[in-house]
Known about the structure:
It comes from Lysobacter enzymogenes. By secondary structure, the chain is of the alpha/beta class.
Amino acid sequence: MLCRSLLYTSVLSAALLCALPARAVPPKIAIAETAAFDAASVAPFAGDYADVYAYLGKQREHNLAQLQRWVRQPSISAQNKGIAQMAELLRADLQQLGFRDTALVPTSGHPGVYGYLDAGAEHTLVVYMMYDVQPIEPTGWKVDAFAGSLVDEPGLGKVLMARGATNQKGPQRAFLNALEAVIKTRGKPPVNLIVLAEGEEELGSPHYPEVVAKYADTLRKADGVFFPMNTQGRDGDASMFLGVKGIVYMELEAKGNAASGGPQRAEVHGSLAAKLDSPSWRLVQALATLTGPDGEIAVPGYRDAIRAPNREEQQLFNGIVRGREADAAKQLESLGAARWKNGRDYRDATAAELFDTTLNIDGLVAGYTGEGVKTILPHRAVAKVDSRLVPDQTPDQALALIRKRLDDKGFQDVEIRKLSGYPPAQTSVTAPLTQAALSVYRKYGQTPPVAPRIGGSAPYYVFTQTLGLPMISGGLGHGSGAHAPNEYMVVEPAAGSKVASLEQVERFYVDLLYSLSDALKRPKP
């Protein structure tokens, strides 16, 4: 009997293994290049603008109040709360600074904001801004999210705690503070400036191309695009990235219908699951066809379009990971995780973050999810799904492959709705704008690791692809909690901290304007 039992168990195990989907192992990302990019190869910026710095020092309280004024104005794009007021606030601030040509730009959604400052300069910088913020969480905030409160945080110092403090109202208004100091002391900045802001970045920037299209001819004459951003970690070390992943964000819905069954008009009693099909189970089963049991993408051809990392990207990658494997444990701890996906080591995990695509379930909703018991059979189930795209993937291509996978597996009735999407974007480390920013980091004692792109997404493509302009993000300053309770930006760091104060953040932006101007004046090699 024991032998028969063991034989039966072996046969059953083999049958179960055969029934499971095969592991969808991702391809190994090859890094053949051995050289590494080192920001120390860029000479520190030598400019010194004592009069401008002195003005910033005298305006310390006023400049902090400007940040508080911005974060006190709600501008939640998902709820259309305060959007019109924030757009007008930004436009009025640009006009007060001397942007004589300003406008609220109508779109099919929330308005854009345009401003042009003619300094009579040979070169022009476009400044990308977003004036919208994420919704507020119902619990978890230490202070009113729109009060613009100053909070003493242990180990950090005095922080501005508010929605938008670091993402992105704080650094953006700090940039305008720096610009104001330049104008008040020297009459005009060293470059012409175009501010082009949107109010839908947190929605996936669906209508920002309309804003860009309106001013495309003017924008094409510019030399580059800059996005002010806090880039220092809690330890004070800054980092820099040259691009972003693209994204396609979609909604999948299964509902009762004649082909798959299930209730079609409304939820019914849970006991009826004995004789009616469940749209909830149908959606779960459909989603399960998109990945293997290990979470790796199982959509045929999904990675076929991906371009392998080029030489520059490999050198940037080597510069990021070299000597930093020891930081892996700290990174995992900060994320509240115990290991990298499927046991990857730090190097492979970092390569995947930079050079591989994703397929992620953001949320699942069906039926009753409240407290207590309510036994129902829902008539519909919805999932929010996003995929981060790398060169040369496109949103429509990715969407078509997912649609084909569902159809091939018999889920033709599961609907897919594209909510937003745009391609990846990237700028070279050799671009004058990049080199100018790196030289300023070096002036402030920073030698930042430079990533070819980050894992997140932003609509950089409208500049890099549509207009053919280089675009980077940068700046000193530390903040955290974007999209979460207790979002903050440090304004007065604790004693001994390497994190920049608000005044130092502003100085960085002053120097960047002059460093960029100098870099653009040099003859091209």
